[in-house]
Amino acid sequence: MVVDLKESRKKIDNIDKEIAKLFEERMKVATDVAAYKRSTGKKVFDPVREEEKIKTLRELTTDEFNKTGIEDLFRQIMSISRKYQYKVLGSETNELLPFKQVDKLDVDKDTRIVCFGEHGAYTEQAMEEVFGTDITSMNRLSFKEVLETVANGEAKYGVIPIENTSTGGINDTYDLLLDYDITIVAEHVVKVEQALLGKPGAKISDIKKVYSHPQGIMQCSKFITEQGMESESYMSTSSAAKKVAEEDDISQGAIASTRAAKLFGLDVLKESINFENSNYTRFIIVTNQKVFLSNANKISLSFEIKHQAGALYNMLSNFYYNDLNLTKIESRPIENRNWEYQFFVDIEGNLNDPGVRNALACISECAKQLTILGNVRTK
Ligand SMILES: O=C(O)C(=O)C[C@]1(C(=O)O)C=C[C@@H](O)C=C1
Q1: How many structural domains are present in the chain?
Q2: Which residues are near ligand 1 (CB < 6 Å)?
Q3: Which one of 22, 31, 33 would you pick to mutate in the ligand 1 pocket, going by the greatest count of ligand atoms within 8 A of its CB?
Q4: Exposed end of the chain (fewer CB within 10 Å): N or C?
């Protein structure tokens, strides 16, 4: 005979009441554990104890389905227990957060600021929109050189692009960020209107080959294909404009800004050739000091996790449990370790927020590696 649903639900309700009561009791014990750990300086996360616990609990269950189920359940319970302990401990993350809070970026006319690209590059525009023109600016032809110049102190700030609305994250930037001891202190968005530039007097039909930064080529891929033009990657959009201006070949064009056209004396053969009308690039401003603005509201992190089931899920749950909105996630392959990835995430918040500190304390203990890339003000 089939058991009546009401009867089964009543049984389930009673069992759940017991579980809820036991859960609360367990969490109270976790407070004692936290107090002990604080007094002895022990870490909250004890992976050996967790694995032993899972093994014992699996042995207490009968069939394979329940073994997997109890493992899932207790991995969650212990993860909640850890988060609770960090909260009780008030997340002592000072050594993790060697960042100094500042009210504004320290800059005057003698401050050296380095940007990517030749004069006329979009990055230069971003730099001038952030810092004005009364600065000591420097130009470097690769992202790597910009970051090196900042890391070794030759320039106080550096500006490079990190993301575009139509082509996504700029991989080269992500791949370099962890190679230098630098901090992202600000960001700036520029509307990018790519134009086809040619030698004075050239017509669109004269152009057989276009040069640009890979981003410029990607943003204008439809136009290039429609026109049947060949394309070749160049160091930056403005370097491409310079090349076309310097060489005596009317069949060469550059995809760059109208600003670059003016600077190098080129004709604008067609404006706005990017395939998406709303084409914006986000630039980051980096420095070699560990600082963040007091009104910063977005944190960028990078971490590596164990290559195992649930690792990313558990890591991201730290944001959920601390009520932090995750606004972006990127993954990049780790060199020489096929199919393993480095994660880059942005979350809303300020490094002073207790929830942020709590999440960072948890992540730093569980991740294989954690880097706080910076805390910036975003609109
Ligand atoms: O036994 C501990 O050390 C605890 O902190 C308790 C607990 C758990 O909830 O069972 C939580 C975190 C540790 O990683 C291991 C186990």
Answers
A1: 3
A2: 30, 33, 44-46, 49-50, 53, 78, 81-82, 85
A3: 33
A4: N
Which domain range does residue 26 map to?
Answer: 1-89
For the record, the structure tokens of 48 come out as 């050996």
Kindly report the CATH number assigned to the domain that includes residue 265: 3.40.190.10
Q: Is residue 210 part of a domain?
A: yes
Q: How far apart are CA 263 and CA 256, in angstroms?
A: 11
The total of other beta-carbon atoms located within 10 Å of residue 323's CB is 11
- Per-residue pLDDT tens for 57-67? 999 999 999 99
**CA of 41 relative to ligand 1 center, distance in Å:** 15
Q: How far apart are CA 24 and CA 247, in angstroms?
A: 76
Q: Which ligand 1 atom sits nearest the alpha carbon of residue 78? A: 9
Residues 81-134: tens digit of each pLDDT? 988 888 887 755 555 678 999 999 999 999 999 999 989 899 999 999 999 999
299: DSSP letter: E
Of the candidates 237, 244, 197, 230, the one whose C-alpha atom is nearest the C-alpha of residue 215 is 237
φ and ψ at 157, to 5 degrees?
-130, 155
- Cα(34) to ligand 1 centroid in Å equals 9
Whether 27 is in a domain gets the answer yes
**pLDDT tens digits for range 342-376:** 999 999 999 988 889 888 988 988 899 999 999 99
ipTM of the modeled complex:
0.97
DSSP string, 234-276: -S-HHHHHHHHHHS--TTEEEEE-HHHHHHHT-EEEES--SSS
Q: Is residue 309 part of a domain?
A: no
**Cβ contact 285:365 at 8 Å:** no
**For residue 191, what are the β-bridge partners?**
280
Ligand 1 centre from 47 Cα, in Å?
Answer: 8
Instruction: Give the span between the Cα atoms of 125 and 132, in whole angstroms.
Output: 9
| 283 is known as an active-site residue | yes
Q: Which residue in 223, 283, 292, 303 is the catalytic one?
A: 283
**Strand-pair partners of 186:** 285
| Residue 374 forms part of a structural domain | no
Buried b or exposed e, range 327-351, using 16+ CB within 10 angstroms: eeebebeeeeeeeeebbbbbbbbbb
